[in-house]
């Protein structure tokens, strides 16, 4: 007979625990998930000694633990005057600012030819407050021999040669 009150007490504690868990989970579900999409548009020119070179761009958001790649711009052949465009977007950063940079892997060099290893230039784009929905920046970046040596690949050699032939036929 002494077990009956103990069993009732255990059941009440279990029920109280379940109700507590339910209330906590409900509170998290009721909090609205507000996230704002911010868009970044970058354009401008690359300064390069060579009339033709290849490049690709990755835009990153600098974070505490690891940096998020928020945009990948595919490999492109550039022909003087070397215009470029890059687009990225991101949602809430939790710090109030987006700290952006781009890595540009390129073949621009003073020899004016396709030479390995390629270079990777890290270019800091700046801090962007989270409360603005859209940013536009025009940049001028000197790529001639700029950056560190890298083993990253920029497309394929065949594509590079095809683009040079296409570009030279445009001017003849």
Short précis:
This protein is α+β, with helices and mostly antiparallel strands. It has helices at 3-30, 157-170; strands at residues 38-47, 52-61, 68-79, 83-90, 97-106, 118-129, 134-142, 148-150. It has two domains: 1-31; 38-170, Immunoglobulin-like.
Describe the model:
It is a single chain. The protein is α+β, with helices and mostly antiparallel strands. It has two domains: 31 residues; 133 residues, Sandwich (Immunoglobulin-like). It has a five-stranded antiparallel beta sheet. It has a three-stranded mixed beta sheet with strand order 4-1-7, with no helix packed on it. β2 and β3 form a beta hairpin. The longest helix has 28 residues.
Strands, helices and their partners?
Blueprint: H1 3-30, E1 38-47, E2 52-61, E3 68-79, E4 83-90, E5 97-106, E6 118-129, E7 134-142, E8 148-150, H2 157-170
Parallel strand pairs: 1-7
Antiparallel strand pairs: 1-4, 2-3, 2-5, 5-6, 6-8
Residue runs with pLDDT of under 50 for 5 or more positions: 167-172
CATH topology of the largest domain: Immunoglobulin-like
Question: Gap between N and C termini, in Å?
Answer: 105 Å
Order of helices and strands: HEEEEEEEEH
- Label the structural class: alpha+beta
Overall geometry comes to elongated
Strand percentage: 35-45%
Features:
disordered C terminus; 2 domains; 8 strands; 5-stranded antiparallel beta sheet; 2 helices; 172 residues; Immunoglobulin-like; 24% helix; 3-stranded mixed beta sheet; alpha+beta
């Amino acid at each position: 007979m002494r077990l009956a009150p103990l069993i009732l007490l255990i059941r009440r504690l279990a029920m109280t625990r379940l109700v507590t868990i339910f209330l906590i989970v409900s509170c998290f579900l009721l909090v609205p998930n507000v996230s704002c999409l911010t868009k970044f548009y970058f354009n401008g020119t690359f300064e390069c000694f060579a009339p033709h070179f290849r490049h690709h761009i990755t835009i990153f958001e600098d974070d505490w633990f690891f940096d998020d790649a928020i945009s990948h711009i595919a490999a492109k052949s550039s022909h003087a005057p070397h215009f470029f465009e890059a687009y990225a977007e991101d949602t809430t950063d939790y710090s109030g600012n987006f700290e952006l940079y781009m890595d540009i892997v390129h073949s621009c060099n003073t020899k004016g030819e396709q030479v390995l290893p390629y270079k990777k230039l890290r270019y800091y784009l700046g801090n962007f407050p989270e409360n603005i929905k859209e940013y536009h920046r025009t940049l001028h970046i000197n790529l001639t021999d700029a950056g560190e040596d890298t083993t990253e690949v920029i497309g394929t050699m065949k594509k590079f040669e095809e683009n040079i032939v296409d570009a030279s036929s445009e001017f003849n």
